[in-house]
Design goal:
The structure is a single chain. Helix 3 packs antiparallel against helix 4. Strand 1 and strand 2 (about 125) form a beta hairpin. By secondary structure, this protein is mainly alpha-helical. It has helices spanning about 10-35, 40-70, 85-115, 130-165, and strands spanning about 120, 125. It is elongated and about 55 Å long. Helices cover about 70% and strands about 5% of the residues.
Length: about 180
């Protein structure tokens, strides 16, 4: 198996980035919903710290993944895909990346405008406390999560559509 992508297959690094992101989101999304209903105490602070840590990991993996995507070819579509499917797939992938970056960036800005500090790119960052901006970024964070859930559902439904209706096992491309 090749480490890098070529015109016919995804390489090991693309597969690793894909499944690391998926694993991170499997942890992050339920953890975020769980946090909403917790009372403010030390347990909540601990859970929130894990949420922040995993969120920053997803942020860094997404950035590295995008850079890698720009530097390596994307395998060609094969099988019975038609132009509309190719466009929808590219749009869904674009919005998945965009939404991931929106969620992570809004989460970072929510924390920073809440008067907390974060270490980003090996530098400790502090911003002036601004409750209104913190709340706006929190609203963006929540809304973007719902959009992400919809995009993930569409992504999975496309795989199932190809598997069961078109009889194409496109999942094997990323396994």
């Amino acid at each position: 198996m090749s480490i890098l992508n070529n015109k016919s297959i995804y390489g090991l690094l693309s597969k690793l980035f894909h499944w690391l992101t998926a694993a991170g989101l499997i942890v992050q999304i339920p953890l975020g919903f769980y946090l909403v209903d917790l009372d403010f105490d030390q347990f909540r602070v601990d859970i929130e710290n894990y949420h922040i840590l995993f969120g920053l990991i997803v942020f860094y993996v997404t950035l590295i993944r995008l850079i890698f995507k720009l530097l390596t070819p994307t395998p060609d579509f094969k099988g019975s895909t038609f132009l509309g499917q190719k466009i929808l797939a590219k749009l869904n992938h674009f919005f998945l990346y965009f939404t991931l970056l929106t969620i992570t960036t809004s989460g970072i800005l929510k924390k920073l405008f809440n008067g907390e500090s974060l270490i980003i790119f090996f530098k400790k960052i502090n911003l002036t406390y601004n409750f209104e901006l913190s709340e706006q970024f929190y609203s963006i964070h929540v809304l973007a999560n719902y959009v992400l859930i919809g995009l993930i559902a569409l992504h999975i439904l496309a795989v199932l559509f190809h598997k069961f209706l078109l009889r194409e096992n496109i999942l094997k491309r990323i396994l």
